[in-house]
């Protein structure tokens, strides 16, 4: 046999070897990709294992395992930090409530005495500041509850019509107190969605409460057949800068009757957890909050 035949056999064997190696490496890389995805999505400390002895693949697996360990470490630090933050905020809120309650009691006693007009003016200022601090304390409690609210979300088929009607009715006294006349338009067809009922109630409560704080005397809510809900009210207290930050945590519109605080931020967080969308528009001196599930 000629030398060319032997060369052909050698080249053929090498080609088959390389093709087989490429196929094996491709399969191993696919398995590594699936393993990384599975480990990240699952709450586990498992690491990537490979059957190949290829030096580069082993090196890749080691690098990825090192990154996974760092990721788990950061995740654990984040969870522990959130828990510590939650505990600290809860303790601060408790510490604030006691002196605020005492101050409120003394203010009530002073209000029953004969005070001069100037003293009554100062008393009103103190009373307003105490109210602001009390509201901030409640917001701190809300924040501590929302830190890990996404842990277990139980969804069920709920009727948005019924929840919205009940939420609006619960604000009757507050509407009356602020001289706000609600305009309600709820579609006749039942809008059923797979949602967490308690979260939906809280979403509506936070949005309605926010609308009353901003309102210049009116409030409109409309539920559409497609599951969209629009809340709107007249207000001259907003501008484009305020609108862009209205869902930011603790952002406050300076001229509102009361601070906006955390309400809309929590509402957006809960809507996101229920796979919904929320947006805000400011048109013709009307703040429009649109929610869609």
Please give a structural write-up.
With 293 residues, the chain is α+β, with helices and mostly antiparallel strands. It is 60% helix and 14% strand. It is built from eight helices and seven strands; from the N terminus they run αααβααββαββααββ. It has helices at residues 3-41, 55-111, 117-146, 160-169, 172-177, 197-214, 240-244, 263-273; strands at residues 156-159, 181-186, 192-195, 218-223, 228-234, 277-283, 286-292. Strands 2-4-5-7-6 form a five-stranded mixed beta sheet. The protein has a two-stranded antiparallel sheet with strand order 1-3. A hairpin with a 4-residue loop joins β4 and β5. α4 (160-169) packs across α6 (197-214). 17% of the residues are buried. The model is unreliable at 254-260 (pLDDT under 50).
Secondary structure layout plus pairing:
Layout: H1 3-41, H2 55-111, H3 117-146, E1 156-159, H4 160-169, H5 172-177, E2 181-186, E3 192-195, H6 197-214, E4 218-223, E5 228-234, H7 240-244, H8 263-273, E6 277-283, E7 286-292
Salient structural properties:
five-stranded mixed β-sheet; two-stranded antiparallel sheet; elongated; 293 residues
| Sheet with the most strands: spatial strand order | 2-4-5-7-6
Number of H/I helices: 8
Q: Give me the strand/helix succession.
A: HHHEHHEEHEEHHEE
Share in helix: 55-70%
The major β-sheet equals: 5 strands, mixed
**Average pLDDT reading:** 80
Overall geometry comes to elongated
Strand content: 5-15%
Strand element count: 7
Structural class: alpha+beta
Work out the radius of gyration.
Answer: 30 Å
